[in-house]
Amino acid sequence: MLDADFFRRWMTATAMSVDREAERLTALDSPIGDADHGSNLQRGFTAVAAALEKEAPATPGAVLILAGRQLISTVGGASGPLYGTLLRRTGKALGDDGEVSEGQLAEALRAGVDAVMALGGAAPGDKTMIDALVPAVDALDAGFGAARAAAEEGALATTPLQARKGRASYLGERSIGHQDPGATSSALLIAGLCEAEEAAGE
Amino acid sequence: MSDEKLVGIVLVSHSAEVAASVAELAKGLAGGGTVVPVAPAGGTEGGGLGTSAELISAAAASVDRGAGVAVLTDLGSAVLTVKALLAEGDELPDGTRLVDAPFVEGAVAAVVTAATGADLAAVEAAAVEAYTYRKV
């Protein structure tokens, strides 16, 4: 079972990897975006980590709802409402339970990903974060490691795609050949699940 | 009609200057008489280009007179942030609505219509209608 502490570790691990990879995310966002994805997410997840340390929510759902709220209010770009909605909707789907199963998490995360698709209007293949998140959720039944591998593969597979959502879509065919920054950061979020799991064994 | 509550208008742009200027333009074109509550919510809190959920919430609260608030946005994160705030349920005043309209033309139509004391549905309809205004 996964408790609130697991979810705090997930968010903290994601904050650390976003911090570590911020320059790479911004570099990926330079040719096809407005070169702010890394710095925006870094600001957002730094705020998430700080808020979780200060408030220490008692349930898994409450951890994700607080994290999502922080992202919506601090990121400043489209990734704020998108990641914020992902975490908030996942948190709401987890309800008030003090501990949740991996199956419950998989189901809740699917609700979160569906909410992101409804908000942004993106579908798989549009060269967005959805291209990492949907395969990850599909693989989650096989464990966090399988989900991480699926998310990373999904992110890499955005390179030959033509962007159909967001600012990159204005570039048309010129968006082909670049890995999507949002799918890349989504893979970091999913990888954070593995890190949170590994940290539990320490 | 003077005791009627007016619909509030919030203008959300990636740029603080654009939001403030469009607010001035719309109020100016609405003429004198009734003063419609209009608030810009442009850029990030730090003054950069982007969208601030805090500025949007504050702007909506500042123009809420109890008759609803029409929110017009430019694009991308401005649209997504307003939608995410509406989905939260308690972040924006009751009767706040994201209006699907062109930013400048829609703002003018919304403010002019709101100045007549029209309700939120009429303000929204006028702003949406601005899409049909052809220039060529």
Automatic annotation (TrEMBL), chain A:
Gene Ontology CC annotation, any one: cytosol
Domain DhaL: residue ranges: 5-195
Gene3D superfamilies on file: 1.25.40.340
Gene Ontology BP, a term: glycerol catabolic process
The protein's name in its UniProt record: Dihydroxyacetone kinase
Organism per entry: Streptomyces dysideae
GO molecular function: glycerone kinase activity
NCBIfam families from the UniProt entry: dha_L_ycgS
Matches recorded under InterPro entries: DhaK_L_YcgS (IPR012737), DhaL_dom (IPR004007), DhaL_dom_sf (IPR036117), Dihydroxyacetone_Kinase (IPR050861)
SUPFAM superfamilies, alphabetized: DhaL-like
UniProt keyword list: Kinase, Transferase
Pfam families in UniProt: Dak2
TrEMBL record, chain B:
GO BP: glycerol catabolic process; phosphoenolpyruvate-dependent sugar phosphotransferase system
Keywords (A to Z) from UniProt: Transferase
Keyword Transferase among UniProt keywords: yes
PROSITE patterns: PTS_EIIA_TYPE_4
Gene Ontology CC: one annotated term: membrane
Pfam families associated with the record: EIIA-man (PF03610)
This protein's name: PTS fructose transporter subunit IIA
Species per Swiss-Prot/TrEMBL record: Streptomyces dysideae
